[in-house]
Design a protein that fits this description.
Structural class: mainly beta
Number of domains: 1
Number of helices: 1
Shape: globular
Oligomer: single chain
Distance between the termini: 14 Å
Radius of gyration: 15 Å
Number of strands: 6
Strand content: over 45%
Largest sheet: 6 strands, antiparallel, barrel
């Protein structure tokens, strides 16, 4: 079992929790909050009370997608995709973290309806994790 110490290239596929319709993908930089939360989930199954994403860009995939208003909370399902570095070997492994959460957008200084200064996930429930070794099938989930 790997113990991961770094996170790179995070992105999340977002689904409407009520209809399970795929809404699109959000990209965001690795911040201390994102790195701490995702490493805790992947390494020990520890689910944080909240995760704060900053500088989020959303790429809609549904014509039914309507951007949320500032401070609007919506029920969502999501799969975080990222690369995680093994602390011992220093090799990088792709992994997925499937979650249920409430999503709340906060502010949009840029004025772009698909960019958010920050998005907070709360009421987080871990559904599954998958680690994908290079060249092989995924390992069993940790949940």
């Amino acid at each position: 079992m790997c113990l991961f110490d770094r996170v790179a290239t995070p992105r999340i596929d977002i689904y409407n929790r009520i209809t399970n319709e795929y809404l699109g993908r959000a990209t965001f930089p690795v911040t201390p909050s994102v790195e701490s939360a995702s490493l805790g989930i992947l390494n020990s199954g520890t689910v944080p009370e909240s995760i704060l994403l900053q500088n989020v860009t959303f790429f809609p995939a549904s014509t039914k997608y309507v951007p949320p208003g500032a401070f609007e909370t919506l029920p969502r399902n999501g799969v975080i995709h990222a690369e995680y570095r093994d602390a011992d070997s220093k090799l990088w492994f792709p992994a997925d973290i499937s979650l249920r959460f409430d999503s709340r957008t906060r502010g949009n200084i840029a004025g772009d309806k698909y960019h958010f200064d920050s998005v907070e996930y709360t009421n987080i429930k871990l559904q599954d994790t998958k680690i994908f070794p290079q060249g092989g099938p995924p390992q069993a989930g940790t949940t």
